[in-house]
Amino acid sequence: MVTGGVTKFAKAHPAMDFRLMVKRAYDYALKGIPNLTADRIDGTRISYFSDHFARQLKAASMVQDYLGMNPKGSVRLEWGGATGGECFQAAYEAVASGRMDICLGAGFETMSRVATWKGNEFIALASDTNFDFPLGGFYTGYYALMVVRHIYEYLRLGRFRGVTDEREAQRLAIAEGSRIMSQVSVKNHLNALHNPYAQYPKRLTVEDVLKSEMISYPLTREQICTMSDGAAVVVLCTEERAKEFTDRPVRVLGVGCGTDTMRLADRPFGKVPLMPHEKPKDYEELRYPGVHSFRAGRAAGIEAYRMAGITNPNRELDFIELHDAYASSEIQTYEDLGLCKYGEGYGFVERGDPFLKGIDYGFPTPKAGAIPVNPSGGLIACGHPVGATGLMQAVFAFWQLQGTIPKHFGDPTLQLAKPRRGAIHSHAGTGSSVTVSILERGFR
Question: Which candidate, 420, 440, 192, places its Cα nearest to that of 324?
Fold first, then answer.
């Protein structure tokens, strides 16, 4: 990867249609590399989630035309919430296969053109419309169900095992889980105060998050990402071409993807697929995956780690930009990606591992900086224009590895000290499809 660009993610960009948003991100990406011109790009991979939001079929063809890329080859990508992550991997594969020397990946969504309730209905169409959707299945309801089970498995049967009154034990467990999820929300919103591209940068307390509007128990408004308008682009090329454009490229070291059933009720039970640093005895009593974990995320992580030669992500990754559509799913994904064992996600937050050093979050984070997660602010704070989100993660990871966050953000706070490797993670549906890509600082 040699360059990338992002528009500000916003509730609405009424002055721009999807073509202009992509063009703005594209122009930003190319302006710093004068010898990378449109005629040198061999083809494109373009992603957006829903024709409903764009009110336009084949919108990717209109972007292709607007960028002046005709008659070059192009493929439109769609994979639910993981659409942008799949686009990134498709662009990588176009180059890695030898089909192209230089490939442009571009993604967008314009979600503001419809009312919020209608937008939620469109998003819910990415659930099983024969079974889940007719039951009123908006996604927040699904994720609330999943985190309640996650809390039961790992807090009710853990910290509150000794409480014999079942209702009281579950009440205490959910209160504890909600408090810890709120710390994730505080982290991401506060990080975003230093990211000018973010939709919702703000300083919150745990109490602010807990007192915000209840959307689907126990998930509150401040623990949930929102619909957005935005676009992002990346340019990937061969190593030989990269040398022509920059002395600070970023190498795609590994890619992985995983899938699972659309219906939660169809998820089977089996053994936990193990990371290299885990043992079968770690999970002898765990019924997996149930609805408390994302088997697709675990599969994607294992494949990407294997390709990248990573045996322990905590030691070999410096940061992760992770798909936190909900504060709850961020904690679940810590476990799926092997940052901690299943059942240890809440303690992982309390120790402070995913927090940045040098930022006062308003509560103790003793191990801050161990492996920062969502230093950009994640989806909760940056927003989630679905087709652009995974590419946004790639751009922010690229700048992080280049050491150019101060330049692009106008603020050095979020820049890590000499990061070598990072990961990006995109997630769709209730975990029906997930991508993980490992990026590494290139030659200098």
Answer: 192
